[in-house]
TrEMBL record:
FBD domain residues: 40-111
Pfam families referenced in this protein's UniProt entry, alphabetically: FBD
Protein known as: FBD domain-containing protein
Record organism: Brassica cretica
Upper taxonomic lineage: Eukaryota, Viridiplantae, Streptophyta, Embryophyta, Tracheophyta
Length: 111
């Protein structure tokens, strides 16, 4: 679903995503992230992404971060506004730091 949104904005430079829980989802069931192609704006124009997580214990967050880091060669800033326990934050940061980046200039900010 995400690529369909991004394909309609070929010169998109900044994107803010809020991950919210859909009331129709059953408890303990996460939304599925499905990406079939990389939208052109990720390759040609997207410079800033802000991800706001409002879903407690959302495991797909790292996958979404990986997707942006892997497919955005001119990404300058990836801001992650999230919350974890101290132990959870430590594990999350270890995973994010280990992710490969397409843009060597990309700054990842975790709040």
């Amino acid at each position: 679903m995400l690529p369909a949104i991004l394909e309609s904005c070929p010169k998109l430079q900044s994107l803010i995503l809020e991950l919210i829980k859909d009331p129709s989802y059953k408890k303990n069931r996460e939304p599925k992230l499905m990406f079939s192609t990389v939208p052109p704006c990720l390759v040609s124009s997207l410079k800033v992404v802000e991800l706001i997580r409002l879903i407690p214990k959302y495991e797909g967050e790292v996958e979404l971060v990986r997707y942006f880091l892997k497919n955005s060669p001119i990404l300058e800033k990836l801001r992650l506004d999230t919350y974890y326990t101290k132990k959870g934050m430590r594990n999350f940061l270890k995973e994010v730091v280990a992710l490969p980046r397409c843009s060597s200039a990309c700054e990842v900010i975790v709040l």
